[in-house]
Amino acid sequence: MNEKNLRKDGASHILPQAAKTALLSLVILAFALNASAANSFCDSLITSPNLPPILGSGSAGFQGILLASIVIILIMIGVVSILYLFGYAFRIDKLLRFSKTEIGEIAVTVIVVLVFLGSFYLINGIASNNLFSLGNINGGLNSGIFYSDCNNLSTAGTNILSQLWGLMISQQTIAFMSSLNFHFMTTYWGLSNVVPLSGLSLISYSLIGTMVTITGAVFSVLFVLAAIIGIFYVLFPIFLFVGIILRSFPWTRAAGGAFLGLFIGFYIMFPLLVYMLISVSAVQPNPGIPISSVSSGFDIGAGDVNSLTSFFSQGAIQIMNQTYDFITIVIGQSFYLIMAAVLSFMISYDFTETMGDFLGSPSLSSKNVLKKLV
Amino acid sequence: MSDMTIAMLGIFGAHSQGIMSMLSAAILSAPVSGLPLLPAGGLFYLAVLGILGVFIVAAIVYGLSGTINSTAARNWARVQIYEAMLSGFMLILFLVFATLFFISPSGPFGSVGLPPGGYGCGTASDLYQLATCDLAIFNANALGAFYSVFNVATFLGMTSGINVNFSPTRAAATNLDAGGGLALPSIFPVGAETMLGFTFSAIIVTVLLNQVQLVILAGSLMWIAFFLTLGLIARSFGFSRSFGGTMIAIGLGLGFVFPLAVSLTYGYIDTQLVQLGCTASGLGGCTVSLTASLISSFAGLITYQGFTGGAWVGQLAMLGAGLTFIPFLNFTLVETFILDFSKAIGEKIDFTFFFSI
User: How many of the other CB atoms lie within 10 Å of CB of A218?
Assistant: First the structure.
């Protein structure tokens, strides 16, 4: 195992160091992409005019929090300088060493802040074709990647929801047909309540019922994932500033490093990875069925079974078509979307651990509860 | 799920809304007693007494060390005096920073677009009231969603069924009785009923877990006062110094970081719910809009016009994120802070024993 892949506690990262560097370098270019088709749900989450000003253009909140962080850093520089002067004047070696260490850590924090502000400036400048505007540092990162991720997930969920209609109609029709009963009674003997098609209820409740339940669950997960991406976009920049402030004090430095690591992992890496895994058209989990069909719409037979007469005339063929389409499209592609998000989450968390190690946060590299849950 | 269970859950949901209303009203109207370490709390005196006691004992030992000419005693006394002064400095620091906990959050939260007054928390005058109000409103909206889904499922389930019978031999007036029939219990698709059933089962389970957050949040002042005082006193003694640091970390984590995280995360969720159509008229503001949207969408199934989404999709998605992911995120933030801060000033605490039972 490459030593660069080992953490201090001996465990290994998921990705080698070079891969992580390559991924991080793609961030700057990839985040300059613009949004795709309109989506009212994602509009309210990511591009709403009532979005917290920290991420809007000309945002006073962003500047306010940034200014507060800079003021705190300057105050700490002043305090540490005074301590250094005291240590120098009274020849207290412990104070001198402490001051030098603190100055070094504050320098690291300032470098981290400059790197992020520079990234915001560069990315927003590329996206707006105006590299020479100081306003580029406003508003955090361009919303293109987040909007694209939210759009892909929510559109796939919407398409799946509309396909539930076909499955429900099939289920109702089969349930209706399975209730067909006959009776044949003479004066002395007969047959009562013969239900020749009762076996169809197995298809109705077991097969199609399971497909309806799974489709409903997949729909829910996709929309919740889209909501989570919106939460990352709005709330996680706050962690950047909280991390900067906490990192300025020696006792809370490790906690500040953890917050910065969370910001880097889930505000920068996670949406990028989701975008790359979902939107790259070269990826085709099912040959002949491009993944873009999940976002652009697909049909698992709902159009055919909208007509009950066509269902009765084609019967079992429709059921088999629906089952096939359900497995190849709903299961195949929607589960791919969900697994892409889960895989992105795991890689982002691994990257968060790396940044936590770099910024001095032991909690993110130890066997903590989050690691067990993930 | 049996009909009786469904009915009981519905009654519970209705009463829970009422309970939530009373709880949040009580919390918002309760006067803030001030800083937990002020004389009104009483624990402040305990912390000061503890630190002074250690300082006095160490000073006596330092004085006696000269008499008995003991270098070890002098060194011990020096360390104890240093730690007592450090504990006193930390106490003063906490008292100064504690003012941050009790300033009105309107200004700072307004600067990032999370106004406490936008959805019924306008009377919150400090961080604790704001966090409690945010979480209470969210839980009320979630219970309202349960109530909405339950009502929609019940209402739409009361649709008529179809029963078709045919008996041709009766018309011929023979002794032979032959015929048949077809029956459908309800024209409302059974798959939709199943989905709604899973939805309100999931909501009620996650809301019950979310109420645990509210209980922890309600005791934030107690956590910060008790653990901070215990930690400052314990930190003054040599044998319990690391333990004291850990207690300080837990107190700050549960008493400050957790309410801050809740006010940010659930404040955003509540704001977004208003954007997605939930009214801001107080607790349970989602109930009306969610019910109307669900009925409009699911009624299309009865008339077989199709099944489309609506405002309920966004509202349930945000509620789902708030019931599943946000508690996980808040727990992660608090745990990260406690782990790192406890390692910095005391003994690193480990929560993994909870999950190894």
Answer: 21
